[in-house]
Amino acid sequence: DAGVTQSPTHLIKTRGQHVTLRCSPISGHKSVSWYQQVLGQGPQFIFQYYEKEERGRGNFPDRFSARQFPNYSSELNVNALLLGDSALYLCASRGRVGATDTQYFGPGTRLTVL
Amino acid sequence: GNSVTQMEGPVTLSEEAFLTINCTYTATGYPSLFWYVQYPGEGLQLLLKATKADDKGSNKGFEATYRKETTSFHLEKGSVQVSDSAVYFCALSDQTGANNLFFGTGTRLTVIP
User: Residue B18's pLDDT band (boundaries 50, 70, 90)?
Assistant: First the structure.
């Protein structure tokens, strides 16, 4: 079975540009979460979507937005890129959203902002 | 609030040595606790989890016990291998509606032959 997939693998942008990252969850999973992992740090929660509705938002500026589609895939959008947005962006999916439910992570998209 | 504190790395061990990576947490309520591993160039993989006090999670020779009285979830392995070289993250899942993961800063383990 396919795991969580993300595209693109790598991306290079310049300051001020906009970026869209994509994620496809494990088949049957209805929840997608996005995390930002800055080099040398642990991942930080950005958004969670469940059944196409936003269920949680981390402490990130409004330049960050996301959505979930009817097939449960998701996009993360970042506007007006800053150098500090350079990071590995991870997508995680799970079947349910209880505290005990395991989140399964994709390989990530490495974003470099120049 | 929720937070996870991990033992600072990096950690370098010889093959077959005993491994302990300390993890303590602060949380409201009764979180679930996880250890994730990140191999070079890859995403996060779940290593083990425990969902209530005194539970022991185990996988691939790794173990961790959920200790509510000391708010700890230390990772142990009796005999490490070169293939265990990776970054290990302790995490908790909060009790809010979103049940998101809060991660520690990670501990890099290098095992030398």
Answer: very high
pLDDT at B113: 94
C-alpha span between B87 and B103 (Å, rounded): 12
> What's the gap in Å between the CA of A16 and the closest CA on chain B?
27
| B102, two tokens | 């809060």
Structure confidence by residue, pLDDT tens digits, B92-109: 987 766 678 999 999 999
- In angstroms, the Cα distances linking B109 to A31, A42, B41 are 31, 15, 15
Sequence-separated contacts (24+) of B41-50 with Cβ below 8 Å: B42/A107, B43/A4, B43/A90, B43/A105, B43/A106, B43/A107, B43/A108, B44/A43, B44/A90, B44/A92, B44/A105, B44/B89, B45/A105, B46/A102, B46/A103, B46/A104, B47/B75, B47/B88, B49/A100, B49/A102
Backbone angles phi and psi of A85, in degrees to 5: -80, -5
Q: Taking CA atoms, what residue in A is nearest to B106? A: A42
Interface mutation target, options A45, A46, A50, A54, chain B, most CBs of B under 10 Å = A45
